[in-house]
């Protein structure tokens, strides 16, 4: 049974273009979208609702050689404010992550 306060549909698409195939070094580009259905909760006369939403992500990186790479990933690029869960009777609603960035360095020994 579907609980209206949790996501019913959640679709994710991520694409990457890796320019390192021939030389073992080079640029890495990526982008993604996460589309989620609307959710709601009711408690008496109170109705809390989150409409369907889409979140955009991007990644840029560089592979220096077979052992060393650096990548910057950005999520929720539009800084969309959204709930991932809504509970009307208990008021336990969870906000989704705001715009955020992560820098990853990898060194293979």
Automatic annotation (TrEMBL):
GO cellular component: cell outer membrane
Membrane topology: Multi-pass membrane protein
InterPro entries tied to this protein: Beta-barrel_TonB_sf, TonB-dep_rcpt-like
Keywords carried by this UniProt record: Cell outer membrane, Membrane, Receptor, Transmembrane, Transmembrane beta strand, Transport
NAD among keywords: no
GO MF annotation terms: siderophore uptake transmembrane transporter activity
Protein name per UniProt: Outer membrane receptor for ferric coprogen and ferric-rhodotorulic acid
Subcellular location: Cell outer membrane
Extent of the signal sequence: none
GTP-binding is among the record's keywords: no
């Amino acid at each position: 049974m579907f609980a209206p306060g949790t996501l019913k549909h959640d679709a994710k698409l991520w694409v990457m273009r890796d320019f390192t195939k021939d030389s073992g070094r080079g640029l890495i580009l990526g982008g993604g979208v996460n589309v989620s259905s609307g959710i709601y909760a009711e408690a008496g006369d109170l109705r809390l609702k989150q409409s369907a939403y889409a979140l955009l992500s991007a990644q840029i990186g560089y592979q220096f050689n077979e052992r060393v790479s650096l990548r910057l990933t950005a999520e929720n690029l539009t800084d969309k404010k959204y709930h991932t869960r809504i509970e009307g009777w208990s008021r336990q609603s969870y906000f989704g992550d705001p715009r955020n960035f992560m820098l990853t360095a990898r060194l293979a020994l």
